[in-house]
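== Fold encoding ==
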Amino acid sequence: MKNSQNKLTLLLLGVIISINALHSQTNKETSIYNLFDKAIGKENLAIYNGSRHVNYYRTIDNSHSYYFSNNFSIGNLNYEGQNYNNLDLKYDVNNDVLVLKATGEFDYLGINVIKEKTASFSINNKNFINVNYNNPTCPDYMNGYYQEIIYSPDDVLYIKHHKNRGKIIDNKRISDVANQNTFDEFIEKNDFILKHKGNYYKISSKSDIIKIFPESKSKIKNYYNNYSQLEESDKKIFIENLIKEINSTPSN
């Protein structure tokens, strides 16, 4: 029985290598990867070799240090050059750690995926890359995981998701002031980097964007005037749509 399983594993591995040599990833290839993972057993995959994830924070009111949700979501991962699909993932943005849900009898635990071996992952239909993975052109001030949005061959936006950590006092639960409980609170604070024609630029203000696109100065000013409320409520969407606007319409 064991020999049969080994033969099946080698056969599937050969199929995967052949597909990679001929085609980009397709739905058919994804199905074969999933079959291969099932054949060898998920708990034996290299992605499960990381350390145990521990959440040290005490939070209330739905505050957390994770991107999108503190619950696991279905996502994909490229690890050591191989694609893994339909995984339970969550991203601790405060510590820049990708967390994978364990399988089998330890499925209540999270595993820190080894960053140095991770090229990219997707979660909540958003793509993230490790900018330090085989990327010698990356500036020194960029490190770890960034959301990547490709608008054109000339313009790629990188968003560094982060949350500022603060302390709050819960004085509603304990009447004794000396014994008040303290909790961690996380407030979203993102950084934006634009790769334009091979050069990287930090974006934090209107003037930063005008310096990159001087020919679109009028368009950029109008956008800031028209969407000032969006800039205050959701800076991430504001910047995403601005770069999309610059790329989608010709400049005056």
The first helix runs from residue 2 to 22. The chain is about 30% helix and 30% strand.
